[in-house]
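User: Oligopeptide/dipeptide ABC transporter, ATPase subunit, Ketogulonicigenium vulgare:
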Amino acid sequence: MLDHTDAPLFEARGLSKSFRAGGHITGKKFNAVKDASLKLYRGETLGIVGESGCGKSTLARMLVGLEVPDGGDVLLRGQALVRDKASRRAVQMVFQDPYLSLNPRLTVMDIIAEPLDVHGLARGAARKARVGELLDAVGLDPQVSSRFPHEFSGGQRQRIGIARALAADPQILVCDEPVSALDVSVQAQVVNLLIDLQARFGLSIIFIAHDLAVVRAMCHRTMVMYMGRVVEVGDTDTVMQHPNHPYTQMLRRSALEPDPRAARLARGTTPKGEPPNPANLPQGCVFQSRCPLVFATCHQAEPDLLAVGDQGKAACWHLEAR
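Assistant: Predicted structure for Oligopeptide/dipeptide ABC transporter, ATPase subunit:
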């Protein structure tokens, strides 16, 4: 476990973002992310997990400046993150889809060199040499720099995307489900690559995923999101082995059991109902319609994150009642 006595390198405070249902101007507004906060420490990997649509990717896009939050702040070394060139260099993103995130009209050389050109980091022979170094760092032969994205496999394309992110010499990588579109065998290779690159370049990483096994292998701490809210955060081993929030418990059982529905039925903990409509959430806890532990207070107000254990937090009224 890393030492968290120092100030965080990167921080989000109360980030919120709303959209209109269906993308229509007349659609009802809903909170894709509501009041999300996180801290990332130097050399740490923070995992963010949750079902599709829980707000993970929207949060990631706000962290790197691709979405403007409705409220809240993003801080780098304690200072508000300004979207100038220096700040953009410090925080880089690795995207989910290696097939859509690379420009098919550009060679690998020009794709990876784009941050070098934008930030004026290298030109001419130095530019070519730096691209070769980055390709080597991600396990690709520098000789492939003249080729185009369609000539590579999905795993190789994701390595190119990682090399492009590293070209800016960042302190932080925000990885938005970087292995979910890859075969299982290739996923392990990319995860191991990120671990090696973190040690080599001193990176801090935010790693977004829905696969708990990948998060457990990769991350020091884990944050769990549901319906745009942070419902639990803590040391990864603790969150995985002794989850405090009923939703985290559900995710863990689903990851451990080949037939999670049968396992939940056997334990009498099957989540009730369906996920609520994000544009029409009930008053109170957003997990109430599925929670096997729901009681009267859950219908009255949303619980705040409450400190539990060693540096952990969870948002559940049952913790208040203990």
